[in-house]
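Supplementary Note 3. Input sequence used for the single-chain structure prediction.
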Amino acid sequence: MDLKERILAYMHEEAYRPLLAEDLAEGMQLTQEELVQFDAALEELEKEGAIIKNRSDLYGIPSRMHLVVGRLSMTAKGFGFIIPDVRESEEETDVFVPGADLNTAMHGDRVVARVTPAQEEGRSREGEIIRILERANEKIVGTFESSKTFGFVTPDNTKLSQDIFVPKKAFHGAKTGSKVVVEITKWPDRRRNAEGKVIEVLGKVGDPGVDVLSVMRQYDLSETFPEDVQEAADNVEQEPAPEEYRGRRDRRDLPIVTVDGEDSKDLDDGVFARRNPDGSFFLGVYIADVSWYVREGQPLDREARERGTSVYLVDRVIPMLPKELSNGICSLNAGVDRLSMACEMQISPEGEVTSYEIIPTVIHVYRRLTYNIVNKVLVDKAEPFVSDNQDIREMLETLEALRHVLKAKRHRRGSIDFDVPEVKVKLDDKGHPVALIKREGSLAESIIEECMLIANETVARHMDTKHQPFMYRVHEQPSDEKIERLNNLLGAFGLFVHQSETGDIKPMDVQQVLEKVKGKPEERIISTVALRSMQQARYSDMSLGHFGLAARYYTHFTSPIRRYPDLIVHRLLRETFATGSIPAERQAKLRTMLPEIADHASERERIAIEAERETTDMKKIEYMAQFVGEEFSGIISGVTAFGIFVELDNGVEGLVHVSTMVDDFYEYREEQFAMVGERTNKAYRLGDEVEILLVRANVEERNLDFVLKDNGAYDPQAMKNAVRGGRNKGPKPAKSDKNDKSDKAKGGRQDAKKRPARRPIDDIIADLPTSEGEEKPAKKKRSHGKKNRGASGEKLPRPEHNSRAPHEKRERRERRESRGGERSGNRQERRDRENGRGERDYHRVTVTGLNSAVWPDPPGYHERKLREESRAEKAKAAPKHRPRPHRKTEGGTSSNK
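The predicted structure, written as discrete structure tokens, is reproduced below.
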């Protein structure tokens, strides 16, 4: 146990109060050598947030000081949640942080927060951030806007709610409308926004390729490798040497095949199968031996560990390893010798692995197949595919039979299969989307999946039963809250998922529920909610099993070219080949290293998924923009307080805002996963089929707006104005509390400067009638007044006056000057003002009720409004009655009579 671990152990177990550094050292009875290292160790622990130093220079454990340390995850609505580094019990939820208590922290920052218990049962704890340990956003991607003397960068990431101020000397060639990368030079404080300098101009918004490049910069994804890493890759031989075959089983005589997608280049798995005379199967799964070429601690390994995974964006692959390895020496290309790590298994007719060997091999791939070719042979039995593969047709049929056996075994033990189709975006040469292709699972993909699953399980069981340090892929039980929510839904259909005394459920119970509703109207809603109840799979150094697969043991062994945990798995297997066990000293080191590697790999996987989803969604919206104004059928895929999400058959999802539903007031009923009309009792439930109109597509904001065909009103111009107010313009922020001072009080660089006008967002909006039988309202002239506004958001004409009171003119002039001098301030405050707390409430967080931006005015509303304002103007212009002074003070209050 090193000194840092000893300090933490002492403070957890023996320190009953916060201690001075001297008292802590004395209590631990440190040696003279340890005292020399003590201050440095204490400082490192404080930086990590493992211990906290308070204002009295006393040290303590965060949990005992009612503090939490973790990563801040912001929402686009201006508040955030802290995901704790350590949870001492399941009751310790994420910590909700209101916008006023962020104290300049930004999305992704590692912070310390003071925590208060949840006000209601089932709610998150609340916290106030008191310290920022680590800043996460040193570089930010966004759109640049400039004036003569300064500029701003509006972040692409909506979770970053403040603009970045850029002095003129830091423009570095950026112009208004440029997509840029800005590096933070001064972090924000309570009085001003962050300041930065432009370090890269990616291109103009809308130029081909700039959109995907922006996402790459946002997530810090690079197609190029550092110089030392690329040099190491260049030095790797492109053919294995004969001396490298020593100690390996020679499997070059087996007709091993690879089966992948049409455009795959990193081929890391091959398979071979045969049926034994007794009806059992031999299955060999041969995986590229990447660990032979990527040695621990070398440049290639350090870079692969940092990247964690290959990232598959909509138009390119960002590899974990340089192409010299991923597409070259490590790829199991047909017709050449390759080094591999093999899991060879004997499998009974019931699908049980009766014996196995995990061995290093040398192979010679017989043929490269694709999913399409295998389906043509086994399913369609089409020519010339059958004739071209006659020599391996028997093996392919054996693989098909084995697939059925393995899948049936998984089903018997309770494995849950969620059939979620994948949507692929087809692009032209310039990167523009030309088609959305919905891919359903095929027989060929299922064959390979079953082979990989059984190999992963076998390898995980092998290392767990040996009690060796290892890397596992784990999928844990759903949380109690999600189980309860699922059961609430199932109860409406007479179904139930049984919980044990400890609150656990079995995968088999979920599987049986899904089978009972298969083919019924409620199938879609129940399968969707069941899927969303699942936890997210992750990597761990502990064997916790895989709930979704109903597997006691599971790891990732089959993709070391594109996943770092698989590379670690190969490396650890290799260390056991000589003696069957890893040396004790090495085991101790691994048990320290593996948790950190697992956490980092899980984080990098989540980043890769987010980047992939963002680029795909971006191209989906761009593709759908051509269909604005057209009708579609869709399924309700989500229900929230502010509307319903509808997924079209091509996999694209959009929002029907509650404010566009005109036949009733709609209430969100969470327990029913439905939006229900108060008067009509009409319900829109998760899984229902609806007809919609696509009325707006915004590529920059990456969202689509729908209205229900039989229950929708839509005013294109009012909607356009209201939506643009959300992130870019909007009304001025309301006054907030003492921790969130008004813009005028902030001072700062922008106080006396007029902020440059924002470029309009690229909206494509349908020109549809506002409602049946109603014409589109004429465009009104802008007015600065707040009162003369109709319910649909347009300005009303003021009544004519022959004269205006001088004091009123002066007040109006002062207000204009005051507005002109204010800086733009926090964009999130403006957004919050519109999120149900301002006068114009069209936005994605409005809870219920009518919406002034799209709801037509009731009869007589304008005339009544004009009369009221006319009376108000007359009352303001009328001379005010001056009260008589009290008779006792008529002569004044002076004592000199």
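Residues 182 and 198 are 4 Å apart (CA to CA). Residues 721-761, 769-812, 814-858, 885-897 have pLDDT under 50 and may be disordered.
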